[in-house]
Write a structure and sequence with these properties.
Helices cover 10% and strands 27% of the residues. By secondary structure, it is mainly β. The protein has one domain. Helix 1 links the parallel strand 5 and strand 6.
Length: 109
């Protein structure tokens, strides 16, 4: 990978709205009853370049509107084909993420 140390941000959804890229993600799918471990190694968007994050998962913290997420994806990535999945953290519990399904890049995980 590329050189340099990337600053890692703690996963803390309380009182903060942000869009975060993560190398590793885990989530909870209530519909299927499957449960996965907490997402780890999250990095703020101003950290490492997207080329260093494979596969890229997008983590949305707080009440960031879907329109803003789509706008960010188009401007940052250009094509949503590189984005494997998008998740919105539950505002009440950082240990569970809600799968955020966006039409442009809905993908089976």
């Amino acid at each position: 990978g590329g050189g340099g140390d990337a600053e890692l941000a703690p996963v803390d959804p309380v009182g903060q709205e942000s869009i975060v890229w993560s190398r590793t993600v885990a989530y909870h799918k209530p519909a299927s009853g499957e449960h996965y471990e907490l997402l780890t190694d999250a990095s703020i968007i101003d950290g490492p370049p997207l080329s260093d994050i494979v596969p890229p998962h997008l983590i949305v913290r707080g009440e960031v509107p879907e329109a803003k997420v789509r706008e960010y994806l188009k401007s940052k990535v250009g094509s949503t084909d590189r984005v494997r999945s998008v998740f919105r953290l539950s505002p009440g519990d950082g240990h569970e993420g809600e799968y955020l399904r966006l039409a442009e890049h809905a993908s089976a995980v």
